[in-house]
Specification:
This protein is of the alpha/beta class and 298 residues long. The chain has 10 helices and 8 strands. 34% of the residues lie in helices and 16% in strands. Helix 3 crosses helix 4 and helix 6 crosses helix 7.
């Protein structure tokens, strides 16, 4: 039986009064820096352990962090938007900007002592990774964006890429404000975004989510602040980093047309549509994902 690699104790980066929790996978400190960027509302603990270790085995020094309004990082004050749907339709309030979220990642790189890093972002994390490559090109070695909308999509433009029926289903999930509620909501979300080409393993999903016990999947107010953070910078066509665009062919939340749009607009970007994959990172495609990211370095 193999033993999972451990993560370092939580460390903290600070940016504009926001504390950002992060850690590193042990065992490959001399590898090429790789920063993992999470999706909407969830903590860094949602990254599959096996995928993180596969990146480590591929020669990367792996770090992950909690975005503001997620995990152990700072939660911001409430705004007018009470749900992600309301935020998408413009009732956002003014919590913070997408530029501030982008600069959070740079604060984490600084705290890690990394002058530059490979970036891998999923869902909202993919959009943030694109924005980092725009705003801080010297800090980005390669860019991988998965299951994401174009990082410069603004306001109602974003809706063209989102399957609103799934977003509505997610918004209707209601669970109690307890650890048990966190677990049940996590399992329900995992089932909704699961990959149609791979059977949903509720038992293993429940076991993993029980270890995480993350309230972020049902924290609609924090999610609305993250979605409501608007980008005011240059377009994604200015990205210079070698770019890989990954997307699940069966993604129930973000349409594959979003990936195709990113790949067309980012110069030299490589597009890989993953058959049978939803809005997640299923184990059968971990090796494919790592190989694709490794290919960016050549």
């Amino acid at each position: 039986m193999t033993t999972s690699q451990a993560w370092t104790p939580v460390r903290w980066a600070t940016h504009a009064g926001v504390r950002l929790a992060f850690d590193r996978l042990t065992g490959n400190d001399q590898g090429e820096p790789l920063l993992l960027i999470t999706g909407l509302g969830v903590s860094r603990l949602w990254w599959p352990q096996g995928l993180s270790e596969a990146f480590g085995a591929g020669g990367f020094a792996v770090a992950r962090y909690d975005q503001r309004d997620a995990g152990q990082s700072t939660r911001l004050p409430a705004t007018a938007a009470r749900s992600p749907i309301a935020a998408l339709f413009g009732r956002r309030g003014a919590a913070y900007t997408a530029e501030e979220m982008t600069d959070d990642a740079i604060a984490v790189l600084d705290a890690l002592g990394w002058e530059s890093a490979h970036l891998f972002g999923v869902s909202l994390g993919g959009a943030i990774a694109q924005r980092i490559a725009i705003r801080h090109p010297g800090r980005v070695r390669t860019l991988t964006t998965m299951s994401a909308v174009p990082g410069d999509a603004a306001g109602l433009e974003t809706i063209r890429y989102v399957r609103l029926s799934t977003l509505v289903k997610l918004s209707r999930l209601k669970f109690p404000d307890t650890v048990e509620g966190d677990i049940e909501s996590g399992v329900a979300v995992a089932r909704l975004v699961s990959s149609p080409g791979y059977p949903f393993d509720e038992r293993s999903s429940r076991e993993a989510i029980t270890r995480i016990a993350d309230a972020g999947v049902r924290d609609a107010r924090s999610q609305s602040r993250q979605i409501g953070a608007q980008w005011h910078g240059p377009p994604i066509s200015t990205i210079k980093a070698p770019t890989l665009v990954l997307h699940g062919e069966g993604d129930p939340l973000i349409r594959p047309s979003a990936a195709r749009r990113i790949a067309v607009r980012v110069p030299g970007a490589r597009l890989r549509i993953l058959p049978g994959v939803g809005h997640e990172l299923p184990e059968p495609v971990w090796d494919t994902i790592v190989d694709e990211v490794l290919g960016l370095r050549s």
